[in-house]
Amino acid sequence: MCQDSGAGTTPTETNRAVLRSMVQHEDQLRNQRLGWLLALNGFLFAALAFSWELNENELVYILGAVGFLTAVSSWVGLWTNTVAIQTLRDWTGTPPLVGLRTRDLKKPSGDGSGRSGWTRFLSLFYPWRAIPVILGTAWIVVAAVRWRTS
Prior knowledge:
Blueprint (H helix, E strand, L loop, with lengths): L10 H43 L3 H34 L26 H7 L3 H23 L1
Helix pairs in contact: 1-2, 1-4, 2-4
């Protein structure tokens, strides 16, 4: 049973506060991951400009591989973050949540999103879904252009 944590708070209110806190934590992780991805890619593209000008083919390919793998890694991290947030938002259990971890929650049966096909399509363009794919594609194009012009 959930302990009463103060004046006038019910177990349901406490659970909602804990779930809200967990979602906020996942949002902060998402923002940090996007920030790291964009900062690293900024440095990689700057290095690419210098190596391209110096006609360093091997370095261009290495930078392209690092950029692509970073985008894939970030996409996986952001995807798991999205699953965690959706699970927290869909979860309607009422057991005590003190000490609960995201991995302790089970995904509810069914999709649970309640979104139409059009809304789901548009959600593909959320920054945490689109940016890693766009950057990964950009690095593939960079390597292809360099290979073709060398």
